[in-house]
């Protein structure tokens, strides 16, 4: 567990170690099957996998990049594609609709890190474990896997939301008392909400809960402030292109909270205040709601 946080070279060596990832996944599967999701060894295994999934999209070797990304004709004007292809805006826009190749039924080693089997294991641990570190590591692993803009993060996001029905388990983590578990759950939802095809599902399932955990003003503690900012950016993603979702925010009585956070006097430049202001600006772009806002 300690070695897995030793930086890029350490992660690379551990990902390449034959049988290591498979053993970790095997142990966790056994713990879940035996209804023992709270033992310390399971926590350690999940924390290792969490660390090994960090920056996975940009650290995978070329051989995996070739199999994950659909090769496209790239004109001479575009930059030469690197390990994961060009990062030009045009290709980025197309990537979100690019599915992963069909999953292997029996993944080995590093392939397991983004496989739906492990995604479901994380969701199961979020739902069944009562250890805060296990919950946070499971949420954090999913956050890592959904952090990029390529096909793999978007495919993982679709698995979490649509195939594995993971939103109820993640939503429950918004209401736990442990501040870093809550922060990681919100960060995961923020990543998921960047996928336009999932925004309505997420809004329907968790938007009222996001509003309910918004504070009445900017919190004093840094973790709570980061969480508040992440909630505002998640709500921004969900409402930016949807007047219907903006109405959901209104009906959940979110507007007074967002206003109060945006005009916080004690620290005008706080992350949370800026995020709330961005959200307000976006909400105002829905001209059909102006009369409702004024009321």
CATH architecture of the largest domain: Alpha Horseshoe
Q: Mean pLDDT across all residues, rounded?
A: 86
Percent in strands: under 5%
Helix content: 55-70%
Our measurement of the CA-to-CA distance between the termini, rounded to an integer number of angstroms, reads: 54 Å
Tally of DSSP β-strands: 0
Structure report:
The chain has 295 residues and is an all-alpha fold. It has two domains: 1-64 and 109-194, Leucine-rich Repeat Variant (Alpha Horseshoe); 202-294. It has helices at residues 8-16, 20-33, 40-52, 56-59, 62-68, 89-95, 116-128, 132-145, 151-163, 167-173, 179-192, 199-212, 222-239, 243-251, 255-262, 271-284, 290-294. The chain is elongated and about 60 Å long. One of its GO terms (biological process) is heart development. It comes from Peucedramus taeniatus (Olive warbler). InterPro entries: ARM-like (IPR011989), ARM-type_fold (IPR016024), Armadillo (IPR000225), Plakophilin/d_Catenin (IPR028435).
Set down the secondary structure blueprint.
Blueprint: H1 8-16, H2 20-33, H3 40-52, H4 56-59, H5 62-68, H6 89-95, H7 116-128, H8 132-145, H9 151-163, H10 167-173, H11 179-192, H12 199-212, H13 222-239, H14 243-251, H15 255-262, H16 271-284, H17 290-294
Helix pairs in contact: 2-3, 2-7, 3-8, 7-8, 7-10, 8-11, 11-13, 12-13, 13-16, 15-16
TL;DR of this structure?
By secondary structure, the protein is mostly helical.
List keywords for this structure.
mainly alpha, 295 residues, Leucine-rich Repeat Variant, elongated, cell junction
């Amino acid at each position: 567990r300690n070695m897995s946080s030793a930086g890029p070279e350490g992660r690379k060596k551990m990902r390449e170690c034959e049988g290591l990832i498979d053993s970790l996944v095997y142990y966790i599967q056994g713990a879940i099957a035996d209804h023992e999701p709270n033992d310390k060894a399971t926590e350690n295994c999940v924390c290792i996998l969490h660390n090994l999934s960090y920056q996975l999209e940009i650290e995978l070797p070329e051989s995996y990049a070739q199999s994950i990304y659909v090769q496209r004709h790239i004109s001479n004007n575009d930059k030469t594609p690197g390990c994961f292809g060009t990062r030009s805006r045009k290709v980025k826009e197309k990537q979100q609709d690019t599915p992963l190749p069909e999953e292997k039924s029996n993944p080995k080693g590093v392939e397991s890190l983004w496989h739906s089997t492990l995604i479901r294991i994380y969701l199961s641990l979020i739902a069944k474990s009562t250890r805060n570190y296990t919950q946070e590591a499971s949420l954090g692993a999913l956050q890592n896997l959904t952090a990029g803009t390529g096909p793999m993060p978007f495919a993982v996001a679709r698995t979490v939301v649509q195939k594995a029905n993971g939103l109820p388990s993640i939503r429950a983590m918004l209401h736990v008392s442990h501040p870093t578990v809550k922060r990681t759950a919100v960060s995961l939802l923020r990543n998921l909400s960047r996928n336009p095809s999932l925004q309505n599902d997420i809004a329907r399932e968790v938007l009222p809960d996001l509003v309910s955990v918004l504070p009445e003003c900017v919190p004093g503690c840094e973790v709570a402030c980061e969480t508040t900012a992440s909630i505002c950016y998640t709500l921004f993603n969900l409402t930016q292109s949807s007047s219907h979702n903006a109405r959901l925010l209104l009906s959940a009585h979110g507007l007074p909270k967002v206003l109060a956070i945006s005009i916080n006097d004690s620290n005008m430049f706080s992350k949370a205040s800026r995020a709330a202001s961005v959200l307000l600006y976006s909400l105002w772009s829905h001209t059909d709601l102006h009369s409702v806002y004024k009321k």
